[in-house]
Design a protein that fits this description.
The chain is mainly β. The protein contains 2 helices and 38 strands. The longest helix is centred in the C-terminal third of the chain and has 33 residues. 40% of the residues are buried. One of its GO terms (cellular component) is cell surface. It comes from Neisseria dentiae. Its main location: membrane.
Length: 435
């Protein structure tokens, strides 16, 4: 190893040292700038350390020998306490580090490591050939990785994190929305708080979540979970391979399930009789467990409540019980003519009570409406007590409730109780988990 072109600027009381490839040059002074070229037969590497308030690391004096293949020194470490190592690196600010061919580190505490790497934000880190950490606290790791959103992280070859506090993990992963996360090869999270997890997963709406290879969540607050699943409706959920939830507030459960237009049902006609006064006549969405030609049964359903305000599902045993009773009544009417009058009287009594039942129904709907308008907190760790009123066709109800979000904002609880003008009390509670 030959010693070549060492220059120092010396002032009393402080000591600066430069060590490279086995060579140490020492100088004492109030401030010391050290520039060093280590030469071999076919290669030159440049090592520069800046430690000065008033000047930059001094470039070596004189031309390089012919044995260096005409390699030239870099601009060096021009920032205080900066370090530049390699062919043509630049470290221009306090504490900046540039290591690698023409690497660039321009801000306080920034680090560029790799050929043509660039760290231009304060405390930014670029690691890998052609990696770029553009804004403050950005981290880019991998060949051609780019982090530019500010406090963003890009990890993987050609990954991109351009949203503020965004994270892109995986080859060609892209996170461009604020606080978005893209995890997986070619995954894409392009909206605020969007999450894309899986190869080619795409989450393109605010708060949308896409999990699974080629899954797509394009509706606001939607979730697509499963390979090739799609959730395009606002607040829709698709769960299962190829599941498709295209309607707002709707759910597609199971592989290949699709959502179809929901219909309001206010009455039903059987024979010559029309029945009405149904509860839940204003649906806002639908739940599908299959598709046309690929229907599924829903098994293990508990018996639902049967009353004027119930919106529970009814299972087969309940319908069987009703059918048995209808058969018994029909037999009795046929065989016992003298009971016809009693049946007619019973029917008359039923009609007489329709008015009361209608009022009860309307009051129940008012109660359900009031509970439905109870509020929940929007922030993690917060609790909320709320009151709400509801009305339906001259009947009113008052409801009070309590809701709470967990500290990590994943769990939420809510319950409420209401009383209507018919003095009926209804209540409800829920527990939710979001991811």
């Amino acid at each position: 190893m030959n010693r070549k072109n060492v220059q120092t600027n010396v002032k009393p009381r402080l000591l600066a040292a430069s060590v490279a490839a086995g060579l140490m040059t020492m100088a004492s002074g109030a401030y010391a700038n050290v520039a060093y070229v280590a030469g071999t037969t076919n290669n030159v590497q440049y090592f520069s350390v800046g430690d000065s308030d008033i000047g930059s690391a001094t470039k070596p004096v004189g031309s390089l020998p012919a044995s260096t293949n005409n390699n030239k020194d870099s601009q060096g470490a021009t920032g205080r306490y900066a370090v530049a190592i390699g062919y043509g690196p630049t470290a221009t600010n306090q504490g900046s580090i540039a290591i690698g061919t023409t690497s660039t580190s321009t801000q306080n505490g920034s680090v560029a490591l790799g050929a043509l790497s660039s760290a231009t934000g304060t405390s930014a880190t670029a690691l890998g050939n052609l990696a770029q950490a553009v804004s403050n606290a950005d981290t880019a790791i991998g060949r051609r990785a780019i982090a530019s959103g500010g406090s963003s992280t890009a990890l993987g070859q050609e990954s991109r994190a351009t949203g503020n506090y965004a994270n892109a993990f995986g080859g060609a992963a892209t996170a461009s929305g604020q606080h978005s996360n893209a995890i997986g090869t070619r995954s894409n999270a392009s909206a605020q708080n969007a999450i894309a997890f899986g190869t080619n997963a795409n989450s393109s709406a605010v708060n949308a979540v896409a999990i699974g290879a080629t899954s797509q969540a394009s509706g606001v607050n939607s979730a697509a979970l499963g390979v090739a699943s799609k959730a395009s409706g606002t607040q829709s959920v698709a769960l299962g391979r190829n599941a498709n939830a295209s309607l707002d507030n709707s759910v597609a459960l199971g592989a290949n399930s699709t959502t179809t237009a929901y219909v309001s049902t206010n009455s039903a006609t059987v024979g010559n009789l029309t029945y009405g006064g149904f509860a839940g006549t204003s649906p806002v969405g639908t739940v599908s467990v299959g598709s046309s030609g690929a229907e599924r049964t829903v098994s293990n359903v508990a018996a639902g409540r049967i009353n004027a305000t119930s919106t529970d599902a009814i299972n087969g045993s309940q319908l069987y019980s009703v059918a048995q009773q209808v058969n018994t009544n029909t037999t009795n009417i046929t065989n016992l003519g003298d009971q016809i009058n009693n049946v007619n009287n019973s029917v008359n009594n039923v009609y007489q009570h329709v008015g009361d039942l209608d009022k009860d129904l309307r009051a129940g709907i008012a109660g359900a409406t009031a509970i439905g308008f109870l509020q929940r907190p929007n922030e993690a760790g917060k609790s909320l007590v709320s009151a709400a009123v509801g009305g339906y066709r001259n009947q009113q109800a008052l409801a009070v409730g309590y809701a709470h979000n967990s500290d990590n904002n994943k769990w939420s609880t809510k319950f409420g109780v209401g009383v209507n003008t018919r003095k009926d009390v209804n209540w409800g509670a829920s527990l939710g988990y979001q991811w």
